[in-house]
Amino acid sequence: MISALWVMIGISLVLGAVLGYSAIRFKVEGNPLVEKIDAVLPQTQCGQCGYPGCKPYAEAIAKGEADINLCPPGGEEGIHKLAELLGVEFKPFGEGKGPRAKAVAFIDENTCIGCTLCLQACPVDAIVGAAKQMHTIVASECTGCELCVEPCPVDCISMQAIPEDISTWKWPYPVFAIAPVRNNPQKAEAS
Amino acid sequence: MRTLYRFHGGIHPEEHKLESSEAPARRAPLPKKLILPLHQHIGNGAKVAVQVGDKVLKGQMLASAQGMISAAIHAPTSGSVTAIAQHPVPHPSGLDGLCIHLESDGEDRWIERAALDFRAMPKPELLDRLRDAGIVGLGGATFPTHVKYGLPSGQRIDTLVINGAECEPWITTDDRLMREHADGIVRGIEVLRHLSGAGEVLVGIEDNKPQAITAMRAACAGSDIEVVAVPTLYPSGGEKQLIRILTGKEVPSGGRPTNIGVACNNVATAYAIHRFVDHGEPMISRLVTVTGNVRTPMNVEVLIGTPLTEVVECAEALPGTTGYILGGPMMGLEVDDLHLPAVKSTNCIIAKSAQLFPPPPPAMPCIRCTRCAQVCPADLQPQELHWFSKAKNFGKTQEYHLFDCIECGACAYVCPSHIPLVQYFRFAKSEIWQREHEQQAAEIARERHEFRMFRQEREKQEKAERLAQKEKAAQAAKPAVATPLPVAAAANADPDDTLQMRVDADIARANMQLRIDAAAARAKEQAAAAQPKNIDALTPQQQAEIAEIEARRAKLREIASDAGADDEPPKQI
To answer: Is residue A154 part of a domain?
Structure first.
């Protein structure tokens, strides 16, 4: 009886030590779910979700504070991915909140006064310029977040849709017209 | 006799080769206007090297290679550049691409041509010359040839496979080329052998081209190039399939032939290399089969950029033509309208008629008979791939090795439900590519955003540190004024000075200075909030530069307003 108790106590001590050690040794910094959600988000940092960037939105989703249908640039597919990741139901975009066509910002060089306000607004440093010097957009880095449009005091920034060209063209989903099946008169007679 | 191997599957579609293979190749008449797309090869489009209005000679470079994978474009005849503008190009999208428009002067005057002593040349230089001669693979994929042989160190090529299989129905350009220019092809093969350093050279030709085999064997007599007749079976002309037939080696999934020590080139590419190395002619023309619903099916030597309508005129399209196929019926591109230029990949134009190409019966649901899997030369499961592509389950398609599909169309050919399987696979592939592209863009955006946050944090910290230091200095100085015993504090603030009198004076001055500094800092901060401060403290040189730029801009504005008044359209480049 006593020896059995000792064995059980011994086992529990050993296992406790192992668990305690691994809790310290393999500790995960931060919430790994946030990282996973952040990886699904499109990283436009546009703030259309109401949070100041993709990471804060990911944190809000992980805490259960935000819905999964607040990210228009991610499109419906983004919602599907989030739903799958979090094990929740798909939720469509709210009225008039759907994704817009992809666009990049464009600065009208004749109007730009070089105020640097857009530089401060750009979340990905995709605008080049200096005070009283003309600013320009690095189109390849622009995420199309539109955050620079609002601060411009002379309204010289416009969003230009990216036209489809050969390099961005995609094969369409095969669609076929369904032809109604006509009764074959010969067959009908035979039967 | 060499042992031949089999690849999995394959089909026997009707060949339709005799229609066009028996007549000798003709040269198409010199077109008046040529349209040269900048993007005729895999990789980056070429970079325009001429201006509108330039007079150019035949063989002159019009656009140079840009980036790692690219090739140059040359003037196919002498004339003048009339525009550099958008024009429809042969592409499944039917969209326009940037093209150089060339008007021929009818003289067909060459630039200076010189043969190349390729054996005396270092290999990298020879590769650069091939790139600048616009040599790309003419087997269909138009992969720049110089890239194929610019191997990373440590990779070696043992076997060079020359592809003369030409397995696709209707097309006979390689057949004609081998019959008429076998010697030239062998010269080109010598250059390729030199480039690859391969010990073994095999030329694979399907056994439905006996004359081509005889001609090539005669041309290779006395050399150790082996011409091998391979059984006729579509798609034995696929690179991976031909390598399998000839060597028994299989290119690994997702790999290139060079991974297993094999390089593969088309006979037409070898001939183009011969034209360049021995005659100094860049890639400006190619053979095109014109066949189908035409009066005299034949092969035509066509300058790149020739409008396809003029190419078809050589063979006279018959009434009842409903459309055209560019390339073969298995892998080609269907177009309704021929207002397109011939490009480096144009190997065949088939005029369709309702008789020759009846419209496909409507697609019906997959019955999972797996006939597609039986014929797939890449050993895939097309029925599964179709299932997942249709459901847009792209992760699964990749698990089933979608990217090993060569889009040969054998699966769709045998499908009893007439499902256009290849269309589904192409859709899935381009969808996956786009997603990968977006993922990369998101990754870059994330990095840039994180760096920006880090930078802002750092700037804030630096500012706080500066302020803290000032505060410290101020606090070190303050007690000196406030307390009746300032000596210790003053000694702290200025430990080097030991003279009491000077200390007192210094403290008073320092106090005043501090207040002035604080006010100035406040003013500066306010100014900085409105406007950053990177244009003060300019050197006279910088000021001069700014003045110069301003003057230039003013002038430009003046010119622009003048030009606007003249109503002159802007130049397109």
So the answer is: yes
